[in-house]
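Give me structure tokens for this 320-residue protein.
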Amino acid sequence: MAHGTPSSTDGIAPFYTAIRRGSPPPPDLLDELVGRYRAIGGTSPLTERTRAQVSGVAGALEAVAPGEFVVRLGTKYVRPTLEEAVAELAGAGAARVVGIVLTPHQSSLGSGEYFRRARRAAEDLPDPVPFTAVPSWHRAPGLAAILADRTREALDASDATGPGPTAVFFTAHSLPQRVVAEGDPYPDQVAESAADVAALLALDAAPALTWGVAWQSAGRTADPWIGPDLLAEIRRVASEGYASVVVCPVGFVSDHLEVLYDLDIEARQLAGSVGVAFTRTRSLNADPRFLSVLAGVVLDASAPPPSGGGHATAVPDPVP
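Here you go.
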């Protein structure tokens, strides 16, 4: 299950109207959003990336459990919808539906909405199908190692830009503070992801380097959103004499607007304006190692008795 994205510039207004629960975006905000999409090529590659991930997970599952799984994509705001995906799985003869959201961390405003809709769709079928949710998979076996490899690669690239201290930020999409106040596990899970990668790389022992969690892509609402904000953190470390910033967006698994614009354009431009080199880790996209991790999550959730948990069975890495 995934967020979805408009397929063309003409689709941006209805897409964001749906996100705003039927309230059209103000003209100035819509113009800004259209400009952001145009800055990354007119449309987001999210749909293409997500379909490649779905295909890769299906292939990884078929390799270890031939004929046992049917994998389909359902999206929150475009077609195929979550409800259409559930109906298609039932029509293909699925005895149970396992729902996994392509974001590693659990959130009532994120994965929770997907699960509520998908479960309701499974229960409302003429012949209801049991539904198993995977609330989170941020600590699935092998995931932190992949992110650590990408972070090390980015650190090596950052070192090549010149000497000086480096700040590493692990980022995810911000949430309204009221959600956190209600006990949402999302911030703690993002912090766990960051700490897992930092431990694998021994960042605490690295000279002239600091690391922490920062938040990005906060919404334009009257409510305060959780921080610290990445852009503010870039300004801070620049004022403290840091020479470079490395960003690992642990909350995202694909190239899309929040990565290609918010990081690669907005954050990079800000870093340049304050004299700080900027490096971002490569997105997971359709990396076979990553898709094997996701397949392990699905196997774990589908094994009897259903666990629905976030600790997955390891699937062997594909042969290069």
